[in-house]
Write a structure and sequence with these properties.
homodimer; 568 residues; Rossmann fold; 3 domains; six-stranded parallel β-sheet; 20 helices
Chain lengths: 568, 568
Amino acid sequence: MTNKEVLTHYVKTMTTALKNAGVKHVIISPGSRSTPLAYAFASDDAFSITMQVDERSAGFYALGVAKATLQPVVLLCTSGTAASNYYPAITEAHYARLPLIVLTSDRPHELREVGAPQAIDQIHMYGHHVKWSVDLPLAEQSSKMTQFIERHVQRGTSLALTAPMGPVHYNVPFREPLLIEMEQEEPEQTFIQRLAPQASFDQAMREEVRQLLSQADSGIIVAGELPITFDTAAFWTFAGELGWPVLCDPLSNLRTNVPAQYEALCIDQYDALLKSPTFCQNNIPHTVLRIGAQPVSKPLALFLKQYRPEQVIVVDEAAQYRDFLGVATHHIQAQATVLFDLHVTLETTEYALRWKEANSLFTTLMQEKIEHIEDEGAFAYTLFESLQDGVDLISSSSMPIRDVDTFFNRTEKDIQLFANRGTNGIDGVISTALGIQQARKRPTYLLIGDLAFLHDVNGLIATRFSKTNLTIIIMNNDGGGIFSYLPQAKHEAAYFEQLFGTPTGLTFEHIAAMYEAQYDAVYSIDAFKAVLKQEKTAQLRIIEVFTDREKNVAAHRQLWEQMIERLE
Amino acid sequence: MTNKEVLTHYVKTMTTALKNAGVKHVIISPGSRSTPLAYAFASDDAFSITMQVDERSAGFYALGVAKATLQPVVLLCTSGTAASNYYPAITEAHYARLPLIVLTSDRPHELREVGAPQAIDQIHMYGHHVKWSVDLPLAEQSSKMTQFIERHVQRGTSLALTAPMGPVHYNVPFREPLLIEMEQEEPEQTFIQRLAPQASFDQAMREEVRQLLSQADSGIIVAGELPITFDTAAFWTFAGELGWPVLCDPLSNLRTNVPAQYEALCIDQYDALLKSPTFCQNNIPHTVLRIGAQPVSKPLALFLKQYRPEQVIVVDEAAQYRDFLGVATHHIQAQATVLFDLHVTLETTEYALRWKEANSLFTTLMQEKIEHIEDEGAFAYTLFESLQDGVDLISSSSMPIRDVDTFFNRTEKDIQLFANRGTNGIDGVISTALGIQQARKRPTYLLIGDLAFLHDVNGLIATRFSKTNLTIIIMNNDGGGIFSYLPQAKHEAAYFEQLFGTPTGLTFEHIAAMYEAQYDAVYSIDAFKAVLKQEKTAQLRIIEVFTDREKNVAAHRQLWEQMIERLE
């Protein structure tokens, strides 16, 4: 074989193995060193290619696709700091448990650590934030090599998909020349199939769990973020048999698509209810069954921490289960689905009824009160009410996810909610939304603050290369709104605005013009309602809602004081 | 002491030690967990604080300040992906040898790896790209702790400043509550002073180097990027005694401020001259003395690689000296300044005269030819000619640094040139320029392509919090212009634009409006000249030059063909 044929065989071995392992989406950032792999992906119709000039945004775009599909998603970049730019998304993917396959192109060994341009030490460069980091050899003509590359790629994707899912890293060195034979035949692969059965309980364990649940005279289920593949129908049957109130974090996606017969079990007002000390004291559960990630709600966290229920059963497939409150008494290391055929049928309790009634009261109260408020919460509520059946809603971290938690009420509509909560960063949010939209193709809404929008404004570059259908609602309170809820907001005012408020004074109609987006600026709820009713006329729509940080805090606090007063 | 006093004592011990170690500039990104350190820095007038919402840009801003001062510069961020965003700048700082002091705030130990929000594994998170990574303990009331923190901070900054300089990382955990006593007295420090003498030669070594240089019948000095503190006057005296032509990379800053008597020694046309095979063959030096980083010029690299001069002496203070061509025969592990009192005085050779004459010919030729060209090179040339005495010029990697290399001729003007060449990334360039401007306070020009501008557009956020004086010249050729010079530009046209050209179709008048910059769009050299003569009326000025990728390549190639014809 010629050198060119050897190189072609090498990269096609990789891309074919990735294809066989289920990779469909490849996010590429332009560069020279990655040429062989870029051509190998681009010349194979099995892959959907997305270009993104900014590698940081590319990382989060891939993460969005992975979140929406739970399939391995490939990132490809050139050598040097390009690879460093993936780090934020890799960190998030590690904690959000998403199967990214990161391919960093590298200089050949003789150009490492000798001052060659665009050459950095890429070996293990993502530290503990990837599950595996492989430094591949240069292309050579050897059947050993071919088989090893194929199998190493297969192992890596398997590892990325093994619970808890997470990113893996291949560092791939290339020596010039970098061109390949586009038409060269695809290599035959020898590894045929991976069969990975899910964990299941044996009889003894089933009995033990059944007993744990049965001995509770009062119980709640706490459902945090759940994976897109979660079987909600089976879950509701299970919850219905238990008869326990389900405190549904918005990212559990149990507030949407709720079957009518289980509607009352779906508790969506707990964030507000648990602000009442009286309610807390009167409603300490004996047992908490927690599934999914940890919920957003701070009152819920404080409630569990302060009253430490007798049994807190955390169902988490990772040995390093999530429980930062340190309240777990039992850890079931499995997916929640293993519980669903236990059929623990309990009597409905007084305790459960109290939750349902309180939830119902607060739903009504909120509807009444919200009409008279003009804060960010009211804007968020207005948005949620306006959403049609069959759309996706992505929320930024910081204030938006808290507004979703508080104001997104249970609904029969089919609305899927997403957010990056592995590390709760405000980076990469636009890219994540675009990635999710690309994977799911549904009309998509993104609720985001001005700082988070600004942070990933380059996420929008992807719209120059791939079509989207996205409406971005920016809550522009000119700076770090969430800090106004912290203790420092009341002290050292001289430094607060400098260090935390960080008012940039920026508005985003210019960005909208740059990316040819439909744009509206909104200052009142009425105007917002009117704008939301208008037709979407561009692939990208931006609605900028101007609010006031101080008024938001005041309105927020007043609303809850009034509601809690009524409850008590 | 109260807990608050203990915490205050802890962070003030750190900030005082940093102050005593010479830190003046602190770049902070807003966040909650970093509150104690943010307040400690902000309440001490010794520190100049810059806020930057985007941590990636913050990293490059700090890097710019470090490049301009060679003093330790502090970065401070909250926990989580904020810290991951520093990675690109840290990578560049490692290879560019710049003393960044990276402070990442962390959650306390009980909140690590238990699913707490914004908590990631920050220990050693920057891998091999920092010289030292310290995980500090929580604040406690103990004199042991105070002394240890002070001395660890002192050691770290010393290490950052030790050749080769580089970044160090402190991970600092904080438990809530995070407020400090702003007025609390500064802790007394016990470590008083660091004395770090520079390396110097002993008699035997001096003799050896003197002999190496004396035995050459033909020699050149190749000067790559040199640190801002480099003693150019002493260098020119040394070079004058040797009488060797000095091939001055623009980042050596030896093309500017050239003393009249050494002007002829300053060779600035070698990139063009060494494109001629005849010139190369006739001018192989016996000895090359290389100082500073490796030059930008590809013809120079090929020349050295092809003809492998008998002696190639690389002067580099790092054991891992920079020589990706693998042509070095000697490595002097020291700063170049140790050579300057060797006083090796040699006779002027025919060889040296040939270089001087060829250089002079090409200077004249270029001036003639460039008048009739309208490509990116001609725009760059026009810009350089227009620059006044006493300004700084920052160049992006990719095409701009090559245009600087080719078209920035030697001058008596005091113009300081900068670029990020540690890893040659196109990321963080705007931020680096803003950091340099802040440290030096001179009128500053940035030459940058459209993709690099877009990549760090968030660098501009810093202009909302700190004044600047920056003129950005964007060469907008709508995509990755440099790739048009690569082999793939001629093949597989179907994929070339998708994978490499990546035309975003974006223009930047909107960004200019968003950041209240003075803005001009320019389509011709005449218009460019006129615009450059107009007064700067805003702190930020953006001149967008629209060029055509294909025409640039053609004009570029034609210019050199004509010039080389004349030479041969």
